[in-house]
Design brief:
- By secondary structure, this protein is mainly alpha-helical.
- It is 62% helix and 1% strand.
- The chain has a two-stranded parallel ribbon.
- Helix 1 packs across helix 2, helix 2 runs antiparallel to helix 3 (85-101) and helix 2 packs parallel to helix 4.
- The longest helix has 33 residues, at 6-38.
């Protein structure tokens, strides 16, 4: 198959971005209808769970994954030098949707990338830095005025102490649930069935399990084998008395997942792929590609993205699309 030229790449990104706007609109309308029926604000945020599925997107779609899909589409519209009213509306829909999905890691990287564009890549970056700074701060303050989004960050930052999170901080906490801090996730010798791991604490616990498995199994060169680490994580769930189900989650870290199941060689291959991706993006000075590369690097720290079919397809499609050698893709849109 011949490499795509600049115009073909542009068209593919265009169609992809408008498709994401359509999906965002669909789920927003769905949320409004569900709110009218249930009066439950949870339908506007994050994803649901396997019990009630009250969320902006279904649990199986995963809000973190959808955030990445939407972010790339948003940067397509943001990067256009001449924007129509439709482009601006699409960008605003995607911007709001990413924040409503409330993925903490993606929101932080997303905000940094928006700032990078405003101050270094936009046409007005040199002439209107003060204006851009004011717009940037206004967006951030407006978004974090939503209590649901703010609470998702508070549950992380205020639980990162030696003591657990107070119920007064997180207004959705159920009675009898103890929120585990990062310190506890790394140090506790036992847990109880009522313990709940916020996102960061859970990933720290999973990394701790990797370190333990690494010391117990000869996995350095070849790893345990594809998905073979799940059996070990289930054993750790029983050993540490976690609530049933935690052991069914993977490492939620692509770098750790590669090392645990494919060994050092698999880990190095992933690092090379990531390095080539960011190097090509910087060389071509393509902001959309830079956004994709940075989002993937950060996403791999919190998700085993390539161990899900939709994640693998998304990564392969855009990675190959951007790795074009015959013509630099500057995409002056």
């Amino acid at each position: 198959m011949r490499p795509f030229n600049k115009n073909q790449v542009y068209k593919l990104l265009k169609y992809y971005s408008y498709a994401m706007v359509f999906y965002a609109g669909f789920f927003l309308v769905r949320a409004v209808i569900r709110y009218i029926i249930t009066s439950d604000q949870r339908v506007f945020f994050y994803h649901g769970d396997y019990n009630d599925d009250f969320g902006l997107v279904p649990k199986l779609l995963n809000a973190i994954h959808v955030s990445v899909y939407m972010a790339i589409a948003f940067f397509y519209f943001l990067n256009k030098e001449i924007k129509s009213k439709l482009d601006s509306i699409c960008a605003l829909i995607l911007l709001g949707f990413v924040f409503l999905l409330s993925s903490k890691n993606i929101i932080i990287v997303f905000v940094v990338l928006i700032g990078l564009h405003f101050f270094y890549f936009s046409k007005s970056s040199n002439k209107m830095r003060l204006r851009n700074l004011i717009i940037f701060i206004t967006i951030i303050v407006s978004v974090f005025s939503f209590s649901k989004i703010k609470n998702r960050f508070l549950v992380e930052f205020q639980s990162n102490t030696k003591t657990s999170l107070s119920h007064s901080v997180y207004n959705e906490a159920d009675e009898g649930i103890n929120y585990i801090s990062i310190y506890e996730a790394w140090n506790n010798e036992k847990f109880s069935q009522g313990d709940y791991f916020p996102g960061t604490a859970f990933r720290v616990y999973q990394f701790r399990m990797f370190v333990e498995i690494f010391s117990e199994e000869p996995l350095f060169w070849k790893g345990l084998g594809l998905n073979a680490s799940q059996v070990k994580l289930k054993e750790k769930e029983i050993k540490y008395n976690l609530y049933p189900g935690y052991g069914s989650f993977n490492f939620h870290n692509q770098y750790v997942q590669n090392f645990a199941e494919l060994g050092f060689c698999g880990f190095v291959i992933l690092i090379i792929i990531v390095f080539i991706n960011i190097k090509t993006a910087i060389t071509h000075k393509n902001f959309i590609h830079i956004s994709f590369a940075v989002l993937m690097i950060s996403l791999f720290l919190t998700e085993s993205f390539l161990w899900r079919q939709k994640g693998m397809l998304f990564f392969i499609s855009l990675y190959c699309l951007f790795q074009i050698k015959e013509d630099k893709i500057t995409l002056k849109i």
